[in-house]
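The record is given unchanged here:
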Amino acid sequence: MSHSATSTSGSPRSGSLTRRLLVTTVVGALALAPFLLGSYAIGTLSRVLVFALLALSVNLLTGLTGLPTLGQSAYFGVGAYTAAIVATRLTDIGALQLLIAAAVSALVAVPTGWLAVRARGVVFLMLTLAVGEIAYSAAVNWKTLTNGSDGMSGIPPVVPLPGMPALELDGLVYFYVLAVFLLLFAALGRLGSTPFALALRGIRDNEARMKAIGYPTRRYALTVYCGAAALAGAAGSLWVSVQRFVSPGDAGFEIAALALLAVVIGGSGSLWGTCAAAALIWTTRDHLGNLEAVAGRGPLLLGLLFVIAVYTLPRGLAGVRLPSRPNRKRTA
């Protein structure tokens, strides 16, 4: 009598273990970064994490719901200015700045989102672009609140929670940003397996069918639109904690375009792919683009990066699969 068995080298359990090991390695590397890198590198890494959160807010709309947006910089700017005003006039407690910035951004998104979610496709994209341009103009012209094109400076260092000291050093600010980033990333990961997220994917794939079976698709779209705005506002608050300065450029078109580009390169709908692409884009723009060999041609490098990604990674970074060993069969 003979018996055959197949090894489980490619089993789901093995894949889950690999993912957990990878997550542990990445989190461990991020936690150890301040002990291994200099002040400038840590500041850059803090900005990367903030930009990754902004890109994740775009991913909520574009990747999960199928609503491509160029307006998230508006809510990023609203959150940044709100946090700056709260820090200079009310409190230096980072948790309060974060919550108030997210709430104000979500409130601003209610009327603008009510209009935007009535459209789809290119029209939705153009409406969100208009929202971003309105926010930029408001930041430039509302000088009594935003200080116009000069921006807001003199923002005190953040205090994460009551009773804690102010974070003066770049490494300490980085740990604060990292803690908030990991908390929000985990929350988004849990959101992805909820019935609400499944409904959003249904709207993305076949909205007409979702309407036919009774789902209020506009209400779902408006809810996720406001949630994405709140996430962008929280990222804006962290931006102020890192920079201690905010200007109209933080609500400009370039930031919105780069965030959408991160979703495209990372893979629409993928959390880790979006974060990896955000790090790649920020490094290309602010580090590689400043090297003497390329003479500050950061935008050119970003354009080449986008073209290469479109042709070589049609599903983005999330579509890359590492080669695996074939299943081994043994007969006894």
